[in-house]
């Protein structure tokens, strides 16, 4: 326990005179208040064009009520960067707890739809344009892409991989799959694996 010695002063005629009596005050340390962390489960996320806003339908983890949160979109135009706007919204301290269950990719899609609307496109045109941007052409030479476009393609491939990956908890998961491929046809030999008598 800590104690603090306090001198009591009396003020007479502008002078501070110490009293003979002192007081002992017991200092107690304050325990931090246990804050309950609210967790929210996102159910649906959408965009409203007029006024421009992102709308989230969510449930409180502790309660059984479904709620709606409207997050207004400010300082966004048809020339804005959708990925940067989505990151700013997701990292905004006011909305961060609510948007934990919403992927950054989905927010980028919503901002892309809003950008298309501000540019005069219909919803169908915006969706088609976004779908074309998110589809990877297998014939495309990715060596010719700049770093930003390459990172975008890689994130699309990672997301597609995670979507199609079989996890241990999946009902149709099989641990060890052995597949025998038919060898009815004669195997073709490749030039690179043939031994040659020529010395290099």
Topology:
Elements: E1 2-12, E2 15-27, E3 40-48, E4 53-60, E5 66-72, H1 82-90, H2 104-118, H3 123-134, H4 147-164
Helix pairs in contact: 1-2, 2-3
Brief descriptors of the model:
single chain; 200 residues; alpha+beta; three-stranded antiparallel β-sheet; two-stranded antiparallel ribbon; 27% helix
Shape, per Cα inertia axes: extended
Question: Which strands sit side by side, in order, in the main sheet?
Answer: 3-4-5
Q: Summarize model confidence as the mean pLDDT.
A: 77
Q: How do the helices and strands follow one another from N- to C-terminus?
A: EEEEEHHHH
Poorly predicted sequence stretches spanning 5 or more consecutive residues:
1-35
Oligomer: single chain
The amount of beta strand, in percent, is 15-25%
- Rg computed from alpha carbons, rounded to a whole number of angstroms: 32 Å
Query: What is the terminal-to-terminal distance?
Result: 84 Å
**Main sheet specs:** 3 strands, antiparallel
Structure annotation, total helices: 4
Helix share bin: 25-40%
Give the number of DSSP strands: 5
Question: Which class do the helix and strand fractions yield?
Answer: alpha+beta
Provide a descriptive summary of the structure in words.
This protein has four helices and five strands; from the N terminus they run βββββαααα. Residues 1-35 have low confidence and may be disordered. The chain is extended. A three-stranded antiparallel beta sheet has the order 3-4-5, covered by helices on one side. A hairpin with a 4-residue loop joins strand 3 (40-48) and strand 4. With 200 residues, it is α+β, with helices and mostly antiparallel strands. Helix 1 packs across helix 2 (104-118) and helix 2 (104-118) crosses helix 3 (123-134). Helices cover 27% and strands 24% of the residues. The longest helix has 18 residues, at 147-164.
């Amino acid at each position: 326990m800590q104690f603090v010695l306090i001198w009591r002063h009396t003020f007479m005629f502008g002078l501070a005179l110490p009293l003979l009596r002192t007081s002992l005050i017991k200092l107690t340390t304050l325990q931090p208040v246990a804050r309950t962390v609210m967790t929210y489960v996102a159910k649906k996320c959408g965009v409203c064009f007029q006024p421009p806003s992102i709308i989230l339908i969510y449930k409180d983890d502790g309660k059984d009520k479904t709620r709606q949160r409207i997050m207004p979109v400010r300082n966004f135009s048809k020339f804005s960067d959708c990925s940067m706007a989505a990151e700013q919204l997701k990292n905004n301290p006011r909305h961060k707890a609510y948007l934990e269950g919403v992927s950054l990719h989905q927010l980028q899609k919503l901002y892309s739809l809003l950008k298309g609307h501000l540019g005069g496109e219909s919803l169908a045109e915006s969706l088609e344009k976004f779908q074309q941007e998110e589809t990877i052409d297998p014939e495309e030479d990715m060596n010719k892409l700049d770093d930003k476009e390459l990172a975008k393609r890689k994130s699309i491939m990672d997301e597609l991989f995670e979507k199609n990956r079989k996890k241990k908890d999946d009902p149709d998961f099989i641990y060890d799959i052995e597949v025998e491929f038919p060898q009815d046809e004669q195997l073709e030999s490749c030039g690179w694996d043939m031994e040659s008598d020529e010395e290099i």
